[in-house]
């Protein structure tokens, strides 16, 4: 299910969520000079990614630079928000119209890799189109599906507990640490209940979030899905019942965000959520999003990062990745590999993109951005270093598993509103996830 990281790899990692944007396709101008790494020859290469306006601007700036140095090459750009992007991609593959270069995570890669639709990147490297020499063995291993390197790590992040230091200090509660557990978390929320105003709470309602649940499973030697990405679950209803019971107890004791508030925040702009408004002391979030939330909250509410509370024999901090792939059926595989090579190995491209998708998988990119990190970015890197001893890479999930976040949210909210007991919710989660992957 997971792959342990070495220190060098982990310090090159962390990632981002998609901020909204409509589905778009843009064509760019041609350039003047061939780079010799697969570009040139009058090719029009289609490249797709997900994200929001800031990320789109960075991708476009990098690809404008590539075109200016690769005579006759045009990069046709397709992008969308996260949901729109991954709704469209399967249709494109089914219709034989998928992009030449695409971005995925370990959650979607099996949808395409199992059918041989993604190119072998090591073969393209052997042909001289892609330099993998700066990637550690662990970061490359994270991009393998059934032994073949089909995706290259662009950035990685750690789903974490983001916390408001001012609220902890004002309430006189000890800050979270690497080795804290769910009992300590519960006790902290009891302290916040007694110290905060009526419209504030210790934590957002996390029973709707997949990462802390899966982290808990891994800490107990299990996982949400089978380690080999086959159509099987690797936990049972009892595991899920215990998770939902914990949060049912939190709700009943007034220790977390209410059901109504959690439901309202599901589709609200991040700046309208209770954590971004300093009305919750803790929240589940990808570590790279520290910059986004810190900007919203301002200097008066300094934020910190901690791993999810620990339970079981083996402490774990999950690492999830964002990856670049080449379409195996494309007639422009070499050109696509050359574009990825430029993206990950050219220091100018590295500086433009920074840590937008998290800390990168290759050492030369990390070195290129090291001197330009903001204070908040440095906090993210320091957190990555702190949890390095307990970090693990998430591995590919089976086809259909992309529905897991929606299922987790629906079942978790049903518990919050009292429509399901924890036992019923545990059984429902198992049944719905199994149906999603065809188990």
Instruction: Give the name of the CATH architecture of the largest domain.
Output: 3-Layer(aba) Sandwich
How many separate domains make up the residues? 2
Largest sheet, strands/sense/barrel? 5 strands, mixed
CATH class of the largest domain: Alpha Beta
Cα end-to-end separation = 17 Å
Record the SSE blueprint:
Layout: E1 2-4, H1 7-10, E2 24-27, E3 44-50, H2 53-68, E4 74-80, H3 82-94, E5 101-105, H4 109-113, H5 121-126, H6 137-142, E6 144-145, E7 148-149, E8 152-157, E9 159-164, H7 165-171, H8 182-195, E10 201-203, H9 210-219, E11 223-225, E12 233-234, H10 237-252, H11 259-266, E13 280-286, H12 290-297, E14 303-306, E15 317-326, H13 333-345, H14 347-353, H15 363-370, H16 375-386, E16 391-394, H17 404-416, H18 422-437
Parallel strand pairs: 3-4, 10-13, 15-16
Antiparallel strand pairs: 1-16, 2-4, 5-15, 6-7, 8-15, 9-13, 9-14, 11-12
Helix pairs in contact: 2-14, 10-18, 14-15, 17-18
List its traits.
439 residues; alpha+beta; D-Maltodextrin-Binding Protein, domain 2; five-stranded mixed β-sheet; 18 helices; 17% strand; disordered N terminus
What does the model show?
This is ABC transporter substrate-binding protein. Pfam families: SBP_bac_8. This protein is α+β, with helices and mostly antiparallel strands and 439 residues long. The protein folds into 2 domains: 15-154 and 322-372, Periplasmic binding protein-like II (D-Maltodextrin-Binding Protein, domain 2), CATH 3.40.190; 159-318 and 397-437, Periplasmic binding protein-like II (D-Maltodextrin-Binding Protein, domain 2), CATH 3.40.190.10. The protein contains 18 helices and 16 strands. The chain has helices at 7-10, 53-68, 82-94, 109-113, 121-126, 137-142, 165-171, 182-195, 210-219, 237-252, 259-266, 290-297, 333-345, 347-353, 363-370, 375-386, 404-416, 422-437, and strands at residues 2-4, 24-27, 44-50, 74-80, 101-105, 144-145, 148-149, 152-157, 159-164, 201-203, 223-225, 233-234, 280-286, 303-306, 317-326, 391-394. Strands 1, 5, 8, 15 and 16 form a 5-stranded mixed beta sheet that branches. A 4-stranded mixed beta sheet has the order 10-13-9-14. Strand 6 and strand 7 form a beta hairpin. The longest helix has 16 residues, at 53-68. The protein is globular and about 65 Å long.
